[in-house]
Amino acid sequence: RIIMIGANGQIGSELAAALRQKFGNENVITSDIREPNNQKEGEIFETINVLDKEALKSLFQKYKPTQIYLLAAMLSATGEQYPQKAWDLNMNGLLHVLDLALELGIKKIFWPSSIAVFGPHSPKIDTAQYCIMDPTSIYGISKLAGERLCEYYHLRYGLDIRSIRYPGIISWKTAPGGGTTDYAVHIFFEALKHGKYASFLSADTALPMLYMEDAVRGTIALMDAPSEQIRIRSSYNLAGLSFTPAEIAEEIKKILPNFEMSYVDHDPRQAIADSWPASIDDSSARKDWGWKPRFDLESMTKDMIENLKRDL
Ligand code: VAH
Questions:
Q1: Measured from the CA of 76, which atom of ligand 1 is nearest?
Q2: CB 29 within 8 A of CB 65
Q3: What is the dihedral angle through the alpha carbons of 17, 20, 22, 28, rounded to the nearest 10 degrees?
Q4: CA nearest to 208, candidates 138, 77, 115
Q5: Which protein residue has the closest C-alpha to ligand 1 atom 4?
Q6: Is 137 in the pocket of ligand 1 (CB under 6 A)?
Q7: What is residue 176's predicted lDDT score, i.e. its pLDDT?
Q8: Which residues are in the NAD-dependent epimerase/dehydratase domain (predicted)?
Q9: What ipTM was reported for this prediction?
Q10: Number of H helices, E strands in the chain
């Protein structure tokens, strides 16, 4: 039985749907700080604040989960507006889950890290699994510290924690919130609604990205793999594709020829993006548990526009 915390977010909402599909509604309890607006018949949801450790303990005792997915976090851009809140949520939320998992004997945990753990002195191209990591966003700092904690709780206490350093995730079902890579989602909504988009990242800002279908499939593949195959207990690099705002604009124009792209300067998210890698080496994930992305820029753009057209 799975409890997912932070299930209303961009990744949580689609990962929860996939887990319900795989394990059945009765085995997947979703939770978040407030009710979702799209709960379906037969789905179990619980309102929870991950920082309320007593409430979290009662939730775990009520459902006796064998797995926890902790997706509650404040992302990079919002984190720079409220750094103390971001640290509190991202770190204490994780600590509560780790300590309660120990106390209640919950074996398996999924916790997302991010390419935000890399910083200005990390290699920019094909950034390795192990390299210099000097994150400059509070979000990246909290994710790097979180990786260290996850590895510690595995080595010291044997918790089966598994993690992925997600790149920017692109999806159409749930709008992302407070990220730096969110331009690559907004651009599709704007292209279809208004035929134009003003990017807050400069034309040549290359960032590692991943289509939601690949992200969900990869996460479940990681969690399904036999424990002895999981050699990395900090967090796995994962990459799908890398592109710049100019490149995704060109790809959109192939389908929507009248689409107009423009660029706004001095957005604080530019500095965050500039501190991150342009592309990621995910050979460890490929070797250890068979990771392989399926979407490239062309197929992702096509899929996004087809689905959004129908949805809008
Ligand atoms: C963000 N989407 O922009 C998240 C993610 C790598 C990017 O961490 O903050």
A1: 9
A2: yes
A3: 130
A4: 115
A5: 179
A6: no
A7: 79
A8: 2-229
A9: 0.95
A10: 12, 12
